[in-house]
Amino acid sequence: MKTENDQDKRYASLQRPIPYQPRMPRLNRAKLFAPYDALKPFESTVHAKDAVYTRRIELSEYAQECLDQKLRHIGRGDQVNVTWFQQSSTSDCDLGSYVNLSGTITRIDPVFRILYFGKTAIAIKDILDLRGEDIDAEREEGTSLSDLF
User: Fold this and answer.
1) Domain boundaries, position 139
2) Is 15 contained in some domain?
3) What is the pLDDT of residues 37-96, one digit of tens each?
4) 31 located within any domain
5) Which of 5, 74, 108, 122 is the most exposed, fewest CB within 10 Å of its CB?
6) Is the CB of residue 127 less than 8 Å from the CB of residue 83?
7) Is 100 part of a structural domain of the chain?
């Protein structure tokens, strides 16, 4: 009659099989067991629907002329503060929100009429107000576009 001790000795003499692939590093193995939230895209969509959007403000001719003057005074490397309209991704009409961005202009594309702030591209048609030291110093009038509304 065989005892458990005899079976243990029989298996102890066997060698461990060599794996076909190299072992996965511990850091990568930990990623396999990371928590996964399957409803995260759904929640972000629901929160996007809760956001309050406004209609795009149409600039008067005078406000557009003031903005054009300001755009002529800026260049690459200038520090400016831009208020621009960001259209909602969920609506088809002119609903969105106004965003303030302070930064350095990295590029101006006169053909497609786009200002670049690093990786952020802003269409000139979406700009509501533009402020900066160079702009305010060269302007004789102290009014900003936001004062015109």
Assistant:
1) 55-148
2) no
3) 777 777 777 776 677 788 989 999 999 999 999 999 898 999 999 999 998 877 667 888
4) no
5) 5
6) yes
7) yes
- Residue matched to tokens 């969509």: 45
More confident residue, 84 or 17: 84
Of 91, 87, 100, the C-alpha closest to 49 is 91
For residue 111, pLDDT over 70 is answered with: yes
Instruction: Yes or no: say if 62 and 70 are a contact pair by the CB < 8 Å rule.
Output: no
Residue with tokens 């002329």: 65
Average pLDDT, the chain: 80
Let me know if residue 88 belongs to a domain.
yes
Domain count, the chain: 1
Give the global pTM.
0.59
CATH number, position 97: 2.30.30
Dihedral angle over CA of 82, 84, 88, 94, nearest 10: 180
Q: What is the pLDDT of residue 13?
A: 75
